[in-house]
Amino acid sequence: MVAVDGGRFCVDRFEAMLVDGATGQALSPDYPSTPNLLELTLAEWSTGRRRLGDVHARAFPLPLLPGWQRGRATAAVARSRIGARPSGYVTGLVAESACAAAGKRLCSVEEFVTACRGEDDTLYPYGDTFEEGACNVFRAGHPASALHGNASIGHLDPRLNRVRIGREPLLRETGESPRCRSRWGNDAVYDLVGNLDEWVNEPGGAFAGGFYSRSTRSGCEALVTSHPRSYLDYSTGVRCCQDGPSTPAADMESPPGAPAAPGGSAPRPPGDLPEHPGQGEHGGDHQEHVDPGAPGQNSEHGEQPHQQRR
Predict the structure, then answer these.
(1) Which of 25, 87, 270, 284 is the most buried (most CB within 10 A)?
(2) Hey, what's the torsion of the CAs at 140, 180, 243, 76, to 10 degrees?
(3) Cβ of 273: how many Cβ atoms within 10 Å?
(4) What is the CATH number assigned to the segment(s) 2-243?
(5) What are the phi and psi torsion angles at 107 (to 5°)?
(6) Are 104 and 240 in contact (CB under 8 A)?
(7) How far apart are CA 150 and CA 142, in angstroms?
(8) Taking the complete model, does pTM exceed 0.85, yes or no?
(9) Terminal-to-terminal C-alpha distance of the chain
(10) Mind listing the pLDDT tens digit for each residue in 8-46?
(11) 106 falls in which pLDDT band (50, 70, 90)?
């Protein structure tokens, strides 16, 4: 973890991946971690993917799901690792419990903004002027548009964070945007702007920072408050905070250069879509309907800039 604001609090250096608390195995970053919603998502998209998009999109298979993850309750724990695929499809409730299971907690909005603005107190991690490509935000493509022909539908599709535009993945691994780091002393926090939205501790529900396809230049002030904590979609992730200075026992992050825990394969398609991800489970042979009004299906995020720290 990185000590922020003179050690007033600490924040995870990277966006979190979720692991199973009982075994330590990485949970798939492409599916909800709760068993009921995972099965519902598999049932819907194992067949639903063949009804939307062009011929290439329909041929794009579901990402690998480890067989052990199905049919059992998992207690998700948040882990911060360099070079890992961060977990999407996270509700605010799961984010809160995953941080608690790691001996941490969700960051407050004020803590998130403070950490993001860095010691120089700038709108972006790298300064006060927007630099295209410095952080993984405001990307030209949208994964739902690529797969479904419509950016506003199908936000629980497990394939969304595997989409590439040209040869570039939309979702990047942690630490893969070296300019997008908020400096604190000799250390830094990565990707507080873009990549995935990150849940923060607001009773009504809020996530901060923006994600790769959000058309925002609000930088560290980007904040969405239009969804309850039960909400999830492909773009919602988690990062944890902790009171006081970091301690060796609490800091579970790998130093730069250490091997990352597995986050699944990252296949490449013909065109912009990945090829088959390999062996593994890709869904059941039964179909259930996912209500279009359910979390993640047709929602648009309304962004609300947070008041800047002075």
Answers:
(1) 87
(2) 50
(3) 23
(4) 3.90.1580
(5) -75, 145
(6) yes
(7) 9
(8) no
(9) 24
(10) 999 999 999 999 999 999 999 999 999 999 999 999 999
(11) very high
